[in-house]
Amino acid sequence: MAKNSIESLIENMSPEYNSGDFVFVSVQSLSGIDIDDVLALFRESEGISLVLTKVKAEELNLNYDGVFSWITLKVFSDLNDVGFTAAFSNALAGEGISCNVIAGVNHDHIFVLKYDTNAAMKILSNLSEKGI
Predict the structure, then answer these.
(1) Which of 17, 21, 71, 105 is the most buried (most CB within 10 A)?
(2) Is 87 exposed, middle or buried (0-12, 13-18, 19+ CB in 10 A)?
(3) In whole angstroms, what is the distance from residue 92 CA to residue 75 CA?
(4) pTM across the whole model
């Protein structure tokens, strides 16, 4: 696919807050976990990283460190686009907000600590309006 311009991606990113509280956990196996309850999964050498709702993690008695909000950038971003992740993550970092990014085939998904949600949405919306 053709690469999108960074300016176009930023201008059209349309950040959207997905309601809920999400957590990152690590497990050694998926035994006892319904895959339909898993938002994201990545196998690492130390274990299987999962993103789940906080409610589901607590039901499964899984440990987590922080509670996150999930923001989807609604613009279609090709996995080959260069600089898009850097642009929005640098904008957030510039305001002291950490973000965890999961790139799907169609969209980028950002997880920020729950208490940073409003500030992150404002930063992303301002970036989209003003461009880079």
Answers:
(1) 71
(2) middle
(3) 18
(4) 0.90
